[in-house]
Amino acid sequence: MTAPTGPDLAHHGDAEVRGTDLTDLAVNVRAGTPPDWLRARIAASLGTLAAYPDGAPAREAVARRHGLPVSRVLLTAGAAEAFVLVARAFAARRPVVVHPQFTEPEAALRNAGHPVERVLLRREDGFRLRPDSVPEDADLVVIGNPTNPTSVLHPADGPDGLASLARPGRLLVVDEAFMDAVPGERASLASRTELPGLVVLRSLTKTWGLAGLRVGYVLAEPERIAALERAQPLWPVSAPALAAAEACCEPAALAEAARAAERVAADREHLLARLAEFGEVAVCGPAAGPFVLLRLPDAAAVRERLRERGFAVRRGDTFPGLGAEWLRLAVRDPRTTDLFADALAKALADR
Question: pTM for the full model?
Fold first, then answer.
């Protein structure tokens, strides 16, 4: 294992709320989930626990959802397992991770012995991708879209689009864990089959509130899927998780997810409007995910004062490319946002 330098890659938002009764603005899971109908589907699967899990129906459901052949789909125990599989299944001479972004891809690569190189996007550019910043000879590139924690949605096509990073001899890993929270899933590469070396990772955790169940999937060329599957243990996804994956790909569920994405977008606008009331708070934008990234002086002290007032927010200094002046906030309903804004006003005044 090559030791990472700088930020703590193992820190995640759940550490901010574990064992507390704080209002959670630190974890990007949609509030009020999973819905009752999904709980019922998962509960119904418990009668099958004596049998080994059969992933075929869920795999077929995912394939239908994206208009892909089953050979291009692999179910995983969450997107986190997918990062580990990528790191273990593929040799890379010059792997590059584009930051700031979710830290698990880099951690998985380092744990597998890969010498990871970081490409740091610039605050002055709004943390938007400049494709020429990625080394031409990088043979594995990882980027999130929309990116956690910046909430930037990179375009799929055009001179600055993610598709421009794909080429023969390179594995392009795009983490789309939050794409279903973007109305219309614009900029998604999930259904694209013409891009060489493309690997898209998806999670059901965020929209459906299934972090404890661990379910996600990979979309890639059949030979890449076969290599990842060889690196996987037998029966990696439980029967309840498979039942959830199948249910969340049904037309009614996709319609519900689309409505939820629209609500998130509206709730995010309300959050941005409230944050605009504070002259010393700078928000990274335009935001496209179910969270926003903000910068303010003494952010660490403000975060502690917010905790005293009942709110947990995500520190930003554990993301490469950010520092102690950054915080990430999950988008919540307007009432929660208004309560948070009142707490933030008091936290800022206390300084």
Answer: 0.95
